[in-house]
Amino acid sequence: MNLTLRIFLLSSLAVMAVMPGCSDGRPKRVPVSGQVLIDGKPLEHGFVQVIPANDRAASGQIGPDGRFTLSTFTTDDGCVPGNHVVTIIANESIDPQSQRWHAPKKYCDPTTSDLKIDIVDATDDLVINISWDGGEPFVERFDAE
Hints:
Helix content is 11%, strand content 39%. By secondary structure, the protein is mainly β. The longest helix has 16 residues, at 3-18. The chain starts with a helix and ends with a strand.
């Protein structure tokens, strides 16, 4: 093998080893961001989680405008494509014995949430619609021990 070809091959291997965007050995992910709406209005805080059947879940914090960006392994790296169950956790601590729920509790458990999405490609406009179904935000109190 001549010297020029050897240098080219070694240089190519070195570049491929340090190129951003190369496989990190983890499952393929696609960037996903969107908005959570409750009864047509932005959910102002909480967390959204998308849970695939056989892979690692992705999550994102919900901002005051209802917007979120999903992360699986590193910040804003997206989620694995496929079918997902969606959970929404939107509660805040008021004091050690109580918390306020800003979305129905059924959405925070993957076994009771009826939310499902199919992620195929990258998107920045995924809309997740949830509803109080006639309910409203409430305070949950705990017994002091």
